[in-house]
Design a protein that fits this description.
Length: 230
Amino acid sequence: MNKSLITNLLAGIFVVLGFIFDQAIVLSVGLFALSGAVTNLLAIHMLFEKVPFLYGSGVIALKFQSFKVAIRNLILTEFFSEQKINSLLSKAQPNIDFEPIINNVDLNPAFDSLLEVIEQSQFGSMLAMFGGSAAVEPMREKFIEKMQLSLGEISQTDDFKALVSQTLSQSNSAESLHNTVLKLVDERLDELTPKMVKEIIQTMIREHLGWLVVWGGVFGGLFGLIAAII
């Protein structure tokens, strides 16, 4: 179900009915609802796509390097710090399974970092018009779920396991293993393109951002009703 399309269709129907039957209140509700829904729909589109002559659009691509740095710091700080690696090495297991650790790590700081990047970008002022960070709060759980899945998949790749095994066989130094992980993470992040990052984030949050269009239409309609009555 496309929430944005349904909201705009309903608002459009109100506009048509109000115009045909000369109902000022219905027309006002429809016009305000349509303007609110379309404005929010445009804002969501501008978050992912560069729109000519609209400053601040395409913030995901513009902030590509910031997202890469945030992901890199998250992985190295939360999952593969020297302290955590020391703890793993103390168990002396030849094949270390990182996935249970990843599933138990708190990823809320990662989501907060994502919000911070958006709020500090040109899109931040526009997002504030629609409720600020609270407007995208519903996507937190989905973001965490996707991040855990992606990081778990990375930890299970043959390249990653081979590097870990090689490092463990050569040295039991946590610093050495940390540097190996650092090298692997950097190599993987270098493979990312702005388009790939945009598609990853878009897949995670577009469904939830659709509610911005719905509520834009609802509150726009209420404002239109109040304006018509006044």
